[in-house]
Design goal:
The protein is of the alpha+beta class and about 140 residues long. The protein is about 25% helix and about 35% strand.
Length: about 140
């Protein structure tokens, strides 16, 4: 099974979420998350921290890693763990070749953006929106 992980970032000071504009052949010009494949010998959190550093050019101070969904493909060959990383404040990413833009936006549903299909599906579950509302109420 291929394991992967990704994260939305939630800035406690502004209550906004970070979205990244994808570049490349797959789902180019859609907005998504930091994320990627868990490599052999890595834990999901270790992989997430590596992907954050690679894609954002830094590892911001993260107050909390909150798991919000585990997606498993119908054939059980792919699993994606989605997190929310709560950071104290917005930061300026230094994007790598995988992304060509970023935006901190209000609202966790991303309705004003053309989202990556997997992220769109995740954010359209009522239970995920309830989790995100709870996170916003706590932080």
């Amino acid at each position: 099974m291929i394991m992967a992980c990704g994260s939305l970032f939630y800035a406690a000071n502004t209550k906004r979420y970070l979205y990244l504009l994808r570049r490349g052949a797959r789902y180019a010009n859609t907005w998504g998350l930091v994320g990627g494949t868990v490599e052999k010998g890595e834990t999901v959190i270790t992989a997430l921290r590596r992907e954050i550093t690679e894609e954002l050019g830094l590892l911001p101070a993260i107050n909390k890693y909150i798991p919000i969904e585990t997606f498993t493909s119908p054939d059980n060959q792919f699993q994606f763990e989605t997190f929310v990383c709560v950071v104290p404040e917005e930061f300026m990413p230094i994007l790598n070749h995988e992304h060509c833009g970023f935006a901190w936006i209000n609202g966790a549903d991303g309705k004003q953006l053309k989202l990556h299909p997997g992220l769109w599906q995740t954010l359209n579950f009522d239970c995920i929106q309830k989790k995100l509302s709870t996170i916003a109420a706590i932080f």
